[in-house]
Amino acid sequence: MEQTTRSTTVLRWMGMAIIVLMALVILVPYYWMVLGAFKTVPELNRIPPTFIIEAPTLNSFYDPLGELPPDHTRGLFQIYPGTEGGFFRYVFNSMFVSGSITVCALFIAALAAYVLAKHHFPGRNFFFLLFIASMMIPWQVTIIPNFLNVSRYIGLDSYGALIIPALPKAFALFFLRQYMLSMPDEMIEAARLDGAGEFRIFLRMILPLVGPALVSMGLFIWLNEWNNLVWPLVTMRSEEMRTLPLIMTTMNDPFAAATKQGVAMASALLTSIPTVILFILFQKQFVQGIAVVSVKG
Predict the structure, then answer these.
(1) pLDDT digit string, tens, across residues 144-201
(2) 149 exposure class (CB count in 10 Å sphere: 0-12, 13-18, 19+)
(3) pTM confidence score
(4) Planar angle of CA 137, 142, 145, nearest 5 degrees
(5) In the chain, is it the N or the C terminus that has fewer CB atoms within a 10 Å radius of its CB?
């Protein structure tokens, strides 16, 4: 008995050590990013580097002295004067595109999942397997066909080119269908007997019940679209239509001067904030949705 208790204690401490190590691997780069965003240029140039901020500054965001050498340069909010709204234009583009895709993709996937989970019709399993099989196709294979279709029917360099091709989400459909399969059919039949139409049942009954699953999948979709680089790179032409990942590629130069690295860190910090806020606000629903689907699936 004593040996079993000792083994359990050792395993617990090993598990804690692994968790702490993983947390450090995740948090140290973020901490370094925050340091770089608020350091002065002399601190950024210091060798060996410092792990605390001695003289915090906002110059990487806005520098009143502009490009006065050698320790000053234009801040993040000053380097895009030719674009209406400057850096905030790119923030709006990313938020509008990511938000639109998340909301519309969830609605479409939930509606399709409801039909596949609660309606019996010929070919139901075939269509479901077809959707699942589409997840096996690498997304890189679809870039050229999607580009040709968008350029012909929607038009490049537009919000539609960013949003419409991203709306079908096979994994979201699978995820929500697994959640809906656990709902009793009697509840839906009772609503039908009361005279409720299918769309009303979907809006008033199904969507509220799958709320945790919608939040979980919504965070995944948002994160994927917020960080999407390749598709905007292929379809966007004008400066005004760029998204944050595209803008950050212009700052990603490890050999740039320390003044430029500070601006890049400031951009990365602002880009990460919306996702962090969303996860903090919806972490309870996120964990609940993942846990319920993993058990019911």
Answers:
(1) 999 999 999 999 999 999 999 999 999 999 999 988 888 888 888 888 888 888 889 9
(2) middle
(3) 0.87
(4) 145
(5) N
